[in-house]
Amino acid sequence: MTAGSRLLDIRELTIAFETSDSPVVDNVSVSLETGKVLAIVGESGSGKTLLARSIMGLLPPGAIARSGEIHFVGQDLATLSPQGVRMMRGDQISMVFQEPLVSLNPVVRIDRQLTEAGLERGVMSRPAAYARAIELLERVAISSPEAIMRRFPHELSGGMCQRIMIAAAMMLKPRLLIADEPTTALDCTVQQEVLRVMLEAARVDNTAVLLISHDLGLVAGYADDVLVMKAGRQVEYQPAADLLANPAAAYTRELLAAATVAQSAQAKPGAEHTVCTVEHVSIDYPVRRDWPWQPRTSKRAVADVSLDVRRGETVALVGESGSGKSSVGKAILGLTAFSQGRIRIDGELIAGDKPHINTRAQCIFQNPYAALSPRKTVWQAVAEPLQVGRRLDAETVTARTREMLEDVGLVAQLYQRLPHELSGGQRQRVCIARALINRPRLVVADEPVSALDVTIQAQVLELLGRLQSKYGFGCLFISHDLGVVETVSTRVIVMHNGQVVERGDTADVFANPQHAYTRRLLTAMPVLQFQADLGYRISHRQFSEATR
Amino acid sequence: MSSYFLKRLLMLVPTLLLVTIAVFIIMRLVPGDPVSMMLGDIENPELVRQMRAELRLDDPVIIQYLDWLADVVTLNFGVSFVTGEPVIGTMLSRLAVTAQIVTISVLLASCLALVFGTLAAWRANRRADLVISVLAIGSMSVPAFWVGIALIIVFGIKLQWLPTVGYVSPLDNFSESLQFLVLPIMALVVAETGGLLRMVRATTLDVLSKDYITAARARGLSERSVLFRHALPNTLIPTATLVGFTLGSLLGGAAVIESVFTLPGMGRLLVESVYARDYVMVQGVMIFVAIIYVLVNLLVDMLYPVLDPRVRLRA
Amino acid sequence: MKLRPNAIIGIAGLGLVAIVAIGGVLVSPYQAMETNFLNRFATPSASHWFGTDEYGRDVFTRVAVGSFITLRVSLAAVALAIVAGTVTGAMAAYFGGWLDRAAMLVSDSIMAFPSLLLLLGIMAALGPNEWGVILALAIAYTPPITRVVRSAVIAALAREYVTSSQLIGNGDLTTLFRHVLPNCITPFIVIATSVFTAAVLSEAALSFLGLGVPPPAPSWGSMLADSRNYLGINPWMAIFPGIAITVTLLSINLVGDALRDRFDLRMAGGD
Questions:
Q1: Across residues B56-65, what is the average pLDDT?
Q2: pLDDT of B233-283, one tens digit each?
Q3: Cβ contacts (< 8 Å) between B22 and chain C: which residues?
Q4: Whole-angstrom distance, CA of residue C201 vs CA of residue C80
Q5: N or C, which end of chain B has less CB nearby within 10 Å?
C-alpha cells in the first residue's frame, strides 16, 4: 500500500506554543486508512488533543505547527487556504467533543445545530437536511427524533446530547470522524453504548474514526490501531491486537497495568472495632417552592441506608451520578441534615447539619483543585488543621506538618507553592495530608482519584493504602469507578436511585452480583486481564439471569 | 412562563414600597417647614393653620405616609408649589424630551458596542482590538457633560453649524428639532458606548472560548455564522441587562447633559425644583423616575425568556 | 513584577495628577480664590499656564486645588461604601436567611433610583456641603459593592475548600475571613475601581449642577459649569478642568484593569 492511498497521513508533526520552546506534540507520525479506527491514548499533557485539533485547523491561539506535514486524501493540509480548511471541516473531517452539554450551543435549537452546516454551504435542501438529521438521530438510537429536533440542549441528558453531537458530526458523511474523549463525561452504563453507537454510525458511511482517550482499556477493544503518547512523544504505535498481546514500551505496560484488575491486592479486612455506623438513614432535600404559600415539599435523595465501616478497612459506596452516594458521605461528615436514622462516629451520635470535631472524620474530595484555598501555600493548607481550636507550640506544628508532608511524598521545594503551581497528583497529596494530619478515625473519600490520570490514580491509591496501614483509619470510598473499587475495597455497597440495592464482600459481589443494576454496571465495564503467555485481553463480564 | 412574569412583578412590591419610604424620609429631612416656605414672607397664623391642615402636616407621620402613598398609587403627585400645576403633567411633558434623547443614544451606543465589541473580541489582542479597546476606555473616562461642552465649542461656536442651546419638539418642527438633538445625543453616545462595549467584548471573549463555538467551527460554519448565529445570541443575554440599566439610569440621570444643552428634560426639572425648593415636585420626580427605572429593568427581565431558552424552562 | 503598558500609563497618569495637584499648590504664586479683574479670560501663557477665568483667577491653581477636593470626597465616600458593602455583602451571603433577604431588599430599593437622581435627592435634603456629598455618594455606591461581594462569596462558598475549612473545625468567621474573602479579590477590585470612577464622575456632576461642594471652593465640576457662559470668550476655561477629570478617570480605569489582571491567579501564570 502506498502513502497516497491513505486517508490521513501525519508525518513528523511537531506543535509548540509561541511562548515556549518545548514542543507539546513532538515528532509524531501516524496514518489512518478509510473506514478504520485509530485510537490515540495518553494522559493529560500528552498532546493528543492538540494533535487532533491540528488536523481540523483548530489549534488554540498561540499554538503553532512548527514542522511536519498532515496529508489528507493525498493533499498537504498546510497548502490549503483558510477558506479551504473551513470547507473541509464538517464535510470531510468532523469532530465530537468531550463535554456534550457545553459543545452544543445552549440558545440554539437542536434542529438548527444539526442542519445549519449543510444548508449554509448549499449542499442540501432544507427537507433533505431535515431527513438526513432524522435518519442520523435514529442511527444513534434516539427514539423520537422529530420531538428531539425541536428541543434545546439543556432539556436533554448528557448521553442524549453526545448522541446528537455524533449525529451533527456525521451530517455531511465525512470521511474522517475525530472523537476527543467522547464518553469520558458520561455515566459508565451509558459510555459503552454511546461508543458503540458512534462507531456503528461511522461504519455505515464508511467513515474512519480517530478516537482519542485516556482509557486504554476502553478503546483498545474497538480500535484497529493504537498510538500511545506521553508528554507529546509517540511512545508506541501498533495494531491494537499486537499492542495488547505484546506491549513494547514500559509506559504502555504501566497504562495497561493501571487499568488491569489487581485482585484486591491492597484491600485488607478491617479490625473488630467499628468507627462508623449508619443506621436507617434517609435524607430529604427541600424542593424549591415557586410561591411562599405553597406547601413545603421535599425530595427523598437517600432512603433507609445502613452501613458500617471498621477500623483499617475500606468500604466502597458505588453508584452513578444522582444515586445519592455523595449525600450519604455528606451526612456522615455532618454537612447535611438527615431526616431519619442515626449516625455514629467512633461510638458518638452526630447531628446532621453541623460539621463535627476534626479528629473524628475527614474528607478527601474529588476535585483537588477546588478543595484547596487558591491563595494558601501547601504548608499553610496542611498545617492549618493543627491550629484550629487548640494551642500547639510552633515546634510541634512544624514537626508534625513536615512529618505529614513527607508521609504523602511531597518534597520540601513544594512547601511554599500555591495550588495552581502544582500538578493534579501533587494537589491530591496535599488534600490527603490536610485530611490526615489530625489522625481522624474515619476518612470519607469522595471520588478521590476520578479527576486524575490513570498512572497518577494508581500512585494515589497506593499512597492511601499505605497510610491506612500506618494510621489505621476506616475509609468510606465513594466512587463510580468499579475498577478502582475492586482494587481498594473489602466490602462494597451499591446504590441506585437513593437506595442500597446490593451489599457484600467485594469479591463476592463482583463475581456473583445479585441485583440487575449491579449486573448492568459490571457488564458495562470492560475487563482487562493479563496472562503471562497471551498478554492483555479485553473481555466483558457475562452474567446469566440464572445466577440469581 | 406566565408564572415567571407574575413572580417578577410581585417581587417588585416590597422594593417599590421601600422606595416610597426612602423618598418620604428624604423629604422629611429637608430643612425648613413646607408651609412657611410656600407662604414666604406672609405672616398670617390663621393661613398657616389652614394650610397645615390642608397638607395634613399635623397628622401622625405614619398616617401622613399612608395618605401620601395612596396618592402616589393613584398617580396623584400633587400640585407644584411654584407653578401651581399638577406635578404629573409637568413630569410627563419633561419625560417626553428625556426619553427621546436617551432612547436614541442608548440604541446607537448599544449597536456600536455590539458591532465593535464583537469585532474586538474576535480579533482579540490584534491591532483592531487594541484600537477599539483604547477608544472604549477613553469613552468610559470622559464625562458626558464635558463632551457636550466640547461639542458646543466645536460645532456651535467655532464652526457655527448647529444651535447650542434650546429645544423644539419634533411634533412642531421635525427637522429643526433634529438640529437641537444631534449634539446631546452625540455627547451621550460618546460617553456611554465605552462601558457597554467593554462588557460586550469581555462577554464575547468568554463565549468564544466555549466548546460550542469550537464545535460550530468544526462543523465547518463560516466565521460570520459562528459570530452572529452562535456567539451573539449568547452575548446578548448579559448585554441586555446592562443596556436596560443604562437606559433606566439615564432617564433620570441625564440631568447634566440636559443642563449643558438647556433641554427641558426630567433631570433638569429635578435640578430646577431643588433650586426653587419645590419639594412636591422633587418628591414626585424621584418617585416617578424610580418607578420608570424599575419598569425598564422589569422589561429587560421579561426579555430574558425570549433570549435564553434555559430561563424559559425553569419558569 | 512585570508591569503591563496599561498599568504604566495608568500609574503615570495618576502621578501626573498628583504632580499638578501638589505642584500647583506649592509652586503657583496665586491663590485659588484670588481674583484679578484686570486679567480676566486670559489664554494660557507663561504666567498663567491654564489661563484665567471670569474673575481673573488662575485656572491652573484652581484645577490643582480642585483635585484635592475631588479626590478627598470620592476616596472618603468609596472607603465608606467599601466597608459597608463588604460587611453587609459577606454577611448576607454567608449567613443567608432573613439577613440576606433584608440586605438585598434595601440594596434593591437604593438601586431602584438612578444614582444621580438619588444623589440629587439626598443633596436636596442635606444642602450643598462636603460631608453631605460624601454621605450621599457612600449611600449610592454601597449597594453595588454589597451585591458583587455577596455573589462572589456565594460562588466561593460552593467550593470544596470552604467545606474543607468547616470540616477541620474552623468557625464561621474564620472560614469567611481566611478562606472565602481572599478568593473574592478579583471581582472586588473590579467593582471597587468602577465605583471609584463613578464617584469621581458623580462628584463632578453634582458640582456641575451646583449641588456639590459649595462655591467658591474650586471643584472641577463647578469650574466647568462656570465656563459654559464664556465658551465664546475663553474656551480654555472649559478645556483644562475637563482634561483633569478625564485623565484622572482614565488612570483609575487603567490601574483597575492592571490590578484585575494581576490578582487573577489564572493570568498570573502557572496551571
A1: 79
A2: 999 888 988 898 888 888 877 888 888 888 888 888 988 888 888 888 888
A3: 109-110, 113
A4: 17
A5: N
Predicted local distance difference test score (pLDDT) of residue C82: 94
Question: Which residues does chain B have within 8 Å of residue A291's beta carbon, measured at their own beta carbons?
Answer: 7
Q: Find where cell 500528552 sits.
A: A46
* C-chain residue closest to A432, CA distance: C164
Of the candidates B138, B270, B293, the beta carbon closest to that of C250 is on: B138
- Residue in chain A closest to B310 (alpha carbons) equals A154
Q: Searching chain B, which residue's CA lies closest to the CA of residue A101?
A: B212
pLDDT band at A62 (very low <50, low <70, confident <90, very high): confident
Instruction: Read off the C-alpha cell for C37.
Output: 479683574
Question: pLDDT (tens digit, 9 = 90+) per residue, C234-249?
Answer: 788 788 888 889 999 9
Q: Which residues of C touch B156 (CB under 8 A)?
A: 231
Per residue in A318-338, pLDDT tens?
988 888 898 999 888 888 888
Residue-wise pLDDT for C247-259, tens only, equals 999 999 998 888 8
Angle between the N-to-C axes of helices C236-263 and B127-141, in degrees from 0 to 180, rounded to the nearest 10: 120
Q: Which residue has the cell 455577596?
A: C150
In angstroms, rounded to a whole number, what is the distance separating the alpha carbons of residues C14 and B85? 50
Q: How far apart are CA A78 and CA A62, in angstroms?
A: 17
Q: Nearest C-alpha of chain B: how many angstroms from C82?
A: 21
What is the per-residue pLDDT for A15? Answer: 92
Using CA coordinates, name the residue in chain A closest to C267.
Answer: A420
pLDDT digits (tens, 9 = 90+) for C106-141: 998 888 888 888 898 888 888 778 888 999 999 999
Chain B positions in Cβ-Cβ contact with residue A154 (cut-off 8 Å): 309-310, 313
Tell me: the pLDDT tens digits for C176-197?
888 888 888 888 888 898 899 9
Residue C47: DSSP 8-state: S
How many Cβ pairs within 8 Å bridge chains B and C?
A: 135
Contact (Cβ atoms closer than 8 angstroms) between residue A104 and residue B212? yes
Of A89, A105, A290, the CB nearest to B212: A105
Does the beta-carbon distance from B233 to A95 stay under 8 Å? no
Residue of C nearest to A436 (CA): C168
Can you read off the three cell numbers belonging to residue A251?
509506559
Query: Which residue type occupies A367?
Result: N
* Contact status, residue A56 vs residue A3, Cβ threshold 8 Å: no
Q: What is the pLDDT of residue B37?
A: 64
| Residue listed under C-alpha cell 504548608 | A379
DSSP A295-320: PP-EEEEEEEEEEEEETT-EEEEE--
Supply A496's cell numbers: 441506585
Handedness of CA A12, A15, A19, A21 (dihedral sign): negative
- Cell readout for A268 is 485488607
Sign of CA dihedral A239, A243, A249, A253: positive
- 3-class SS of residue A289: coil
Is the CB of residue C16 less than 8 Å away from at least one CB of chain B?
no
Q: Is there a contact between C117 and B252 if contact means CB atoms under 8 Å apart?
A: yes
Q: Within an 8 Å CB–CB cutoff, is residue B241 touching chain A? A: no
Phi, psi at residue B136, to the nearest 5°? -65, -45
Rounded to 5°, the CA angle C98-C104-C107 comes to: 140
Nearest to A257 by CA among A538, A489, A450, A528: A528
Contact A367 C183 (CB under 8 A): no
Residue with grid cell 435514529, as numbered in its chain: A138
Interface confidence (ipTM) of the complex:
0.84
The x, y and z cell numbers of residue C46, run together, are: 507663561
CA of C268 vs chain B CAs: smallest distance (Å): 17
Q: Which of A102, A109, A290 sits opposite B212 (nearest CB)?
A: A102
Residue B179, all three cell numbers: 438640529
Q: Do B212 and A88 touch (CB under 8 A)?
A: no
Could you report the per-residue pLDDT of A195-218, keeping only the tens digit for each?
Answer: 989 999 999 999 999 999 988 888
